[in-house]
Amino acid sequence: MPAEDEGVARPSVRRSPAVAAILSGLFPGLGQLYNHQRVKAVLFLVAGIVAGFGPLSPVDIDIDLTDPAPGMRNVLLASLPFLAIALWAVVDAYRSAQHPADTSQ
Description:
This protein is mainly alpha-helical. Helix content is 59%, strand content 0%.
């Protein structure tokens, strides 16, 4: 195996901001993985899992079918942390893909 590539800085590959944003929109951290930002990806993935399925999970809220408004309000309120993290991840992935020199994590 040639040792020519060892220690040589490779030019950063330009990533598509749209693809990065869509991946982060699917689940926080996927766009950061696409941008090769492993530390950010793990942090966003963990934050998304905790916010989506943790102690304040919107999945665990019961909705009374005779009067669904209070239950839906509680689901929306419980979803706000996940939605904030997801929005932050989408914006971060998009901006990081636009500036590949800043993605050296």
